[in-house]
Amino acid sequence: MDSACPPIAAFSSAIDEDDLRKRLAFLELGEEDEARLRRLWEFVAPREEGNVRSFYDHIDAFPELHKLIGEGPRRERLHRTQHEYARELFTMHCDTRYVENRLQIGAIHHRIGLEPHWYVASCAKLLTTLMDTLQPLAHEAPDAHAIALKSLVRRMFLDMAWP
Q: Which of 30, 41, 52, 102 could be bridged to 90 by S-S, CB 3.0 to 4.6 A?
């Protein structure tokens, strides 16, 4: 795999409002989903430290991934970045600026040599961790919980779909 980080401009030219609208329409991801995710963040935020710790503990069980993460300051920076991603996933408006941010993270994943199958598996791990975090809400309002999970799945799959 080429370890050179592709310039964000290589992907940004493919991002325009019309393309984003089409992708959002296909995923049926709209303003109601964004509002729902923002409300969910209030529940998720206090639990996110445990989620991040669990995520990196899981990664550590796989030597090829642990090697990419490392220890010390780099690992601490990645923990902070993971927290920031979770906050953005739930709270940031999905516009071209959001997509460009996702592309920058994707370029970094490419540069460090994270293979696509590990990226997809990591997204699955993050999604299932967030689903577990939201599980207590299912007892309060099962229908609302199911709708909330759909919003989360749509948003994460949008993130995975660029470029």
A: 41
Measured distance CA(137)–CA(56) in Å, rounded: 25
Cβ 153 vs Cβ 128: under 8 Å = no
| 16: region left, alpha or beta (phi > 0 left; psi from -120 to 50 alpha) | beta
CA distance 56 to 13: 33
Q: What pLDDT was estimated at residue 2?
A: 45
Q: In 3D, which of 84, 62, 66, 63 has the Cα closest to residue 74?
A: 66
- The per-residue pLDDT for range 132-157, each reduced to its tens digit, is 999 999 999 999 999 999 999 999 99
For residue 3, the surrounding DSSP H or E stretch is none
Q: How far is CA 148 from CA 78, 123, 126, 141, 154, in A?
A: 27, 18, 16, 10, 10
What is the pTM for the complete model shown?
A: 0.87
Q: For residues 50 and 8, give the distance between their C-alpha atoms in angstroms, rounded to a whole number.
A: 32
Give the residue carrying structure tokens 């990419």.
68
Query: Tokens representing 71?
Result: 């220890």
